[in-house]
Amino acid sequence: MAIATGNNSLRLHEFLQDLDAYGEAIPVAYLEQQLRRLVISREEITPYLSFGKETYKRNLLHDGGHFQALLLCWRSGHRSPIHDHRGSACGVRVLEGVATETVFDYAKNGMIFASHSKELRTGEVCASVDSDIHQVSNLQEQGRDLITLHVYSPALLVMGQYSLIDGKVIDFEDPIQSPYLFCDGGGI
Fold first, then answer.
1. Engineering a disulfide at 68: which of 60, 95, 117, 155 sits with its beta carbon 3.0 to 4.6 angstroms away?
2. Is residue 132 part of a domain?
3. What is the CATH number of the domain that holds 141?
4. Whole domain around residue 19: which residue ranges?
5. pLDDT digits (tens, 9 = 90+) for 94-116
6. Burial annotation 117-140 (CB, 10 A radius, 16+ → b, else e)
């Protein structure tokens, strides 16, 4: 899984230290830049990996106060809700597998529609800001898992979840699993 990104690369501990030192909300362009520099091995993240049966699982890798780093684990067929990032910048790096990101826009009648989709392969990075509406999916064949690293700044505690049917947007809290919690499912 380790992918070299040039002489300017960062190991995982250096990456997290750098973001910790930032000290305030981290701009999306900086998140994207640092995620591109990251060199990470499967061994470094194995203790944090946990897959859900019915849906993807968000696993806390690091809480830096002004940001959170999460490892999201997806089985084939798992999808996020259609959502935004309410006040947070988000950078995503695909660590294993192929993620499909579908971006949504507003139609003139106020409903949302899928404007485009793209595949992100191992090592690729994408970034978005708070009001961007999207859905992430693992559309690979059965048995092909997806692992993604998401960095939210500030921490994403509540997001807007969008409906394709009625145009409503509801507050949605997506649970985070932490290795420090003693119950399955944890919470935010």
1. 155
2. yes
3. 2.60.120.10
4. 10-171
5. 999 999 999 999 999 999 999 99
6. eeebeebbbbbbebebbbbbbbbb
